[in-house]
């Protein structure tokens, strides 16, 4: 079946540091890939997505590139802020399958 | 105006009770979902409905019964609550295609004591 693996956290960084959160996937077809973010006490919000190989999703300084050859969708940000502290979820969805399959989430803690 | 709203936000109840969580979306989406998030933050789909019809039931105990009176509402009723049902339950909606964004409610934290 389809699955998503992402690095365990927490990831602890100082403000303005570079962020990478690794995500790899296993899928039988051609999935769309997503990063969702969950701030404390809130529901999930879409951060970015990519729907085909080599697409780059970007939003709020975050980027991720759909790499079919390595089945990866790593999240990066050049300079994190304290307000980026949250749990980040990598997810996939295949056309025709009306559900998201999530990774286990990675908690990011950014200190001033 | 909240896109996906669910109530209540917190629910504390005793083992064996029956409870319901309500969800409404005002986005005009055809597809609605229930996800369960456990204490380790792991998210797993429970149910998916498209135009009021059940599409996905991910081996959820039949004590959980979703009901969709119309395509804007998807309620979750849980019978005979158990300690292991304690979790955060998220409602979500989307256009239903594989590449469409899912919009999530704020979650209902269910605690069974």
Defining traits:
heterodimer, A: 112 residues, mainly beta, six-stranded mixed beta sheet, four-stranded antiparallel beta sheet, 12 strands, globular, B: 113 residues, seven-stranded mixed beta sheet, 11 strands, 56% strand
Total strand segments of chain B: 11
The total count of strands of chain A amounts to 12
Count of individual helical segments of chain B = 0
Largest interface: A-B, 28 and 28 residues
Shape of chain B: globular
Q: What is the approximate shape of chain A?
A: globular
- The termini of chain B sit apart by 34 Å
Mean pLDDT of chain B: 92
Binned strand content of chain A: over 45%
SS-derived structural category of chain A: mainly beta
**Alpha carbon gap, first and last residue of chain A:** 41 Å
Secondary-structure element pattern of chain A, one letter each = EEEEEEEEEEEE
Number of helices, where a helix is a run of at least 4 consecutive DSSP H or I residues of chain A: 0
Major sheet description of chain B: 7 strands, mixed
Mean pLDDT of chain A: 93
**Low-pLDDT runs of chain A:** none
């Amino acid at each position: 079946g389809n699955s998503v693996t992402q690095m365990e956290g927490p990831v602890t960084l100082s403000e303005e540091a570079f962020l990478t959160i690794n995500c790899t996937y296993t899928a039988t077809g051609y999935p769309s890939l997503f990063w969702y973010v969950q701030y404390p006490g809130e529901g999930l919000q879409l951060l970015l997505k990519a729907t085909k190989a080599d697409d780059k999703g970007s939003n709020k300084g975050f980027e991720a590139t759909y790499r079919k050859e390595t089945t990866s969708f790593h999240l990066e940000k050049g300079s994190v802020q304290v307000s980026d502290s949250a749990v980040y979820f990598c997810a996939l969805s295949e056309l025709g399958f009306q559900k998201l399959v999530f990774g286990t989430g990675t908690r990011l803690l950014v200190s001033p | 105006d909240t896109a996906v709203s669910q109530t209540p936000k917190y629910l504390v109840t005793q083992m064996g009770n029956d409870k319901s969580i309500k969800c409404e979306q005002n986005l005009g989406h055809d597809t609605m979902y229930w996800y369960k998030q456990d204490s380790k933050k792991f998210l797993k789909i429970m149910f998916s409905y498209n135009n009021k019809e059940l599409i996905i039931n991910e081996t959820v105990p039949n004590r959980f019964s979703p009901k969709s009176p119309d395509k804007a509402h998807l309620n979750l009723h849980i019978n005979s609550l158990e300690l292991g049902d304690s979790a955060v339950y998220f409602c979500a909606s989307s256009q239903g295609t594989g590449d469409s964004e899912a919009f999530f409610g704020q979650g209902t934290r269910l605690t069974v004591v």
